[in-house]
C-alpha cells in the first residue's frame, strides 16, 4: 500500500468516526488536542500527519467518552 493510500485510509477513518459520533472538525480538535487545521489537512490529504498527531487522534477515537 502506498503512503497516499494509507493517508487516504486514515482520512476515511476520521470521517467515519465523526459521522458515527456526530462530531464537527472543531469538536474533534478540541477533544483530541489536535488542531482543526491538522484535521482539515489530513482529511483533504494535503498533509501527511506526524506520528504524534496520528497517535493523539487514534487514542481519542479509541477511548472517546460518551457525550463528548
TrEMBL record:
This is LBP_cg2779 family protein. InterPro entries: LBP_cg2779-like. It comes from Lacticaseibacillus mingshuiensis.
Amino acid at each position: 500500500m502506498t503512503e497516499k493510500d494509507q493517508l487516504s485510509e486514515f482520512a476515511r477513518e476520521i470521517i467515519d468516526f465523526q459521522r458515527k459520533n456526530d462530531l464537527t472538525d472543531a469538536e474533534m480538535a478540541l477533544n483530541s488536542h489536535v488542531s482543526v487545521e491538522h484535521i482539515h489537512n489530513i482529511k483533504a490529504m494535503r498533509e501527511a500527519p506526524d506520528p504524534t498527531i496520528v497517535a493523539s487522534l487514534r487514542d481519542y477515537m479509541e477511548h472517546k467518552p460518551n457525550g463528548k
